Amino acid sequence: MYTVTVTSPEQTMALGQRLANGLQAQDVILLDGDLGAGKTTFTKGLAVGLGITRNVKSPTFTIIREYQGGRLPLYHMDVYRLEDGSGDELGLDEYFNGDGVNVVEWSKFIADELPANYLRIVFKRDDEASEMQRTLSFEPVGEHFTELVRHLEDD
């Protein structure tokens, strides 16, 4: 596991941008943490790193937002409202086995539908230290994601 502390939204975006360099189709990135902890900000950085120019918005009310036009498509999912386990109705496996990078916020609500390999990033706010300070813990599952995290550590 790799842990990093950021103190600004720009640092959070830069981390996402660096991670994007090693991503490939069918990669699944899980973003878990409190509301306002930086999950969508991180995804904005991923999008920039993939060459996507459209503004990334939180998919809270649409569940899935699709972004094209970059090196790979980006599928940004917020499955918070799927507490009842209705994720299978969304066809998540089609996204996970498709042509793009999948970013899933609140992944615990679809735990049964996750692929065997993924990268979980846990965001923790540290409001006592600073209103902007966040700790991101990278938890890779599978060799590809272990290598990606190793490259982040080396940068």
Keywords:
155 residues, alpha/beta, Rossmann fold, 7-stranded mixed beta sheet, 4 helices, 26% helix, globular
Brief sketch in words of this structure:
With 155 residues, the protein is of the alpha/beta class.
Explain what you see:
A hairpin with an 8-residue loop joins strand 6 and strand 7. With 155 residues, this protein is α/β, with parallel strands linked by helices. The two termini are 16 Å apart. It has a single domain (2-139), classed as 3-Layer(aba) Sandwich (Rossmann fold), CATH 3.40.50.300. The protein has helices at residues 9-20, 39-50, 92-96, 143-154; strands at 2-6, 28-33, 64-67, 74-78, 101-105, 118-125, 134-141. Helix content is 26%, strand content 26%. The longest helix has 12 residues, at 9-20. The chain has four helices and seven strands. The model has no long low-confidence stretch (mean pLDDT 89).
Q: Residue ranges: pLDDT <50 for 5 or more in a row?
A: none
Sheet with the most strands? Answer: 7 strands, mixed
What CATH calls the topology is: Rossmann fold
Number of strands: 7
User: How are the strands of the biggest sheet laid out side by side?
Assistant: 1-7-6-2-5-4-3
The named CATH superfamily: P-loop containing nucleotide triphosphate hydrolases
Helix content: 25-40%
Tell me the count of domains.
1
Q: Helix tally?
A: 4
**CATH class designation:** Alpha Beta
Q: How far apart are the first and last residues' alpha carbons, in Å?
A: 16 Å
Radius of gyration: 14 Å
- Residue fraction in strands: 25-35%
What's the architecture in CATH terms? 3-Layer(aba) Sandwich
Overall shape? globular
Secondary-structure element string: EHEHEEHEEEH
Global structural class: alpha/beta
